[in-house]
Amino acid sequence: MADKIQEFESPTMNINLFIRHPDQTLQQSHTESEQQILPVFEKLSKTVASLRKEQIELCNEFKSMTADSFLGSEVLYALQTLGEEHETLKKKYQEECQMLKNRCQLECSERRRLYNEVIELKGNIRVFCRCRPMNHDEIAKGSTSVADFDSAQENELRIIGPDSSRKQFKFDHIFRPEDNQEAVFAQTSPLVVSVLDGFNVCIFAYGQTGTGKTFTMEGSAENRGVNYRTLEELFSVSNERSDIMKYQLFVSMLEVYNEKIKDLLVEDAEHPAKKLEIKQSAEGTQEVPGLSQVPVNKTDEVWELLKSGSRVRSVGSTNANELSSRSHCLLRVTVLGENLVNGQRTRSHLWLVDLAGSERVGKIEVEGERLKESQFINKSLSALGDVISALASKTAHIPYRNSKLTHILQSSLGGDCKTLMFVQISPSSADLGETICSLNFASRVRGIEHGPARKQTDITELFKYKQLVRELENQLAEERKTRQKQENRALAVASSHPLLSSLTRSLSTISEKRPPLGPSSKMRLPLRIVSNFIPSPAATQKPRHFTASRFSNEDKENRSNFKPLSRARQGSPAIKPAPATTFTSQIKPKRRASAATFHSEPSSRSIRPAPTTTFTSQIKPRRRASVTTFHSEPSFSSSMMTTPISRYSAAPQMRSDRVVGRQSFMWDPQRVRRMSLLGPSSTPRPMTVEATPVAAPRSSRFMGSPHSHIVGSWKPKHPTVVALQRRQLVWSPLKYRGSKGDRKPFV
Ligand SMILES: Nc1ncnc2c1ncn2[C@@H]1O[C@H](COP(=O)(O)OP(=O)(O)OP(=O)(O)O)[C@@H](O)[C@H]1O
Q: What GO biological process terms does the UniProt entry carry, in alphabetical order (predicted)?
């Protein structure tokens, strides 16, 4: 039994214990009962064996088990499908994200591009004019309104002179006295929003004291101005864009008073801990280390902040304004932007500037401290004018550092920055002079942005004409060569024949005396004159005559009459008209023309048809004309004819205002443009301007006309020559000579 027990290793201890009971007495006593236990034991053994077998099977089964053993094929398929779907969706999501990212980038750049285009079209420098209502004082004193608004022309304004003449001004927008702050901001908001797109923007209010600069920029609690509305708009737009953009806005407020910078947002602005200076950062931007920068998150906190800043601002009483701003107040809004999709970050500034009054020192009768303030104000406003002028003429050096005002605004004036100027005016007849000055300055600022485009057009035209001239030159040279060869051949044949020797000699003599095929070297290139004279269409239509009743600021002719930004107003010398003008240009081939000389000739000496104005050109080969010579002939009736040069000649910025006798002077279009902006005069422009210089005796050297027989005998064949000759604006002595005196060569 024991052996049997040993034979079977019971799977359970209980069974073993039961079988291997050690008590011998029990063993003996149970001997009899063994027979009874045996069948049970066998039964149990069988059970154990079967269990053991089952266990082995289970073990094997377990060992051979895989994932498939647990799941049915449907479940597996479903899982596989889900996995694939998951992968597809993940891929799609990633693609969508990429597309969104690209779209955001595209939208951003597209928005920037479109906005840039609009601004480019409208001009990077935009000018809005705002006329305030008449105040009680002015009405009480019996002043009348000089501002005449045309309901049909929204952006035009006429100023009525003392003699009832009207001077017309045109701006990007004109706000009338009845226009409220909301209307003003509606026009301004597109520009301010571009700061959220990463552009630097500068908005400034310019004008005489008491015309509403502070009203426009700051406003009052009931009539909030551009500053507050700007921040309100920035909050609103940044909220709209919150799903793709995150913005942080900071506000700084400072004033430039007597060329010193004062932080208006510190506790004790009157006693600053440190002197504030402008420093250039590593990125090249202008920073004011130590200037407080307050983060702003909602409109509620902004108004109080702005008010606290303006309370500290330097104001003083002048006879022109009870609370006159004696400093330039600058509010800077710094925008930090982060594109949540592509992580792109931007940092841009918006400057909102309330300039100090631009009135004349004499006008406000200041002295002492006020006078000193006014001088500083004058200086910085002049510097601002210089910067704008230099930006317009695209000169390499922009004089930003000439004043604290321009230096601090350096990163926000010029380049692809957007600039908006509010020119503020008073409607009162008592302020007429100042109003005209402000409007003239604003017109010049507005005219600036169209400069480069005009210049390009001119360059294209010039290039076209130069090409034509070059073609003509080549053609003439070719023809001359061929002709020379023919003559040489004929002479050689003639000289080889004894009977013709005498004739050969005669021919040689004739050949020497004979004119060349084309015009002589002196008059060969009349067309080169086109590089100097590209008369404007107007020049061929009607004379320019500025009178008291007609002085449109649209007319670029009045550049000659520009007044400066400076308040040191002086009268500009009026240029007296000559009764008639003959422009005689002597341009020598292969030399460039860069200067002009005027000549005046008494009528008695004139040999040209009296009623016309004649351009005589002499061009010598292998010289580029560096001097263009002008003659004025009193006998000619077309005294008002205007050419580009004659226009410039009338400009005070030419090195010679008047032409006396034969005189040469250089002119530089950039200088003309710059000086025209800030010329020496700042008084209202004279009502009459003549474009023609004072007549002076003409040099006899230019009295003679090209030889008629040459002109008459030479007929150009080349289509370019023929076409060029037909052009009205190109004067050719050949054409004139061929006219037998009955044709007017230049009208
Ligand atoms: N468009 C307007 N509507 C109503 N009131 C105006 C308007 N413009 C200006 N004013 C009022 O004219 C007065 C002078 O305006 P403001 O102080 O803004 O002039 P300013 O040009 O800033 O003068 P300064 O250069 O001396 O600081 C203020 O009382 C102002 O409320």
A: microtubule-based movement
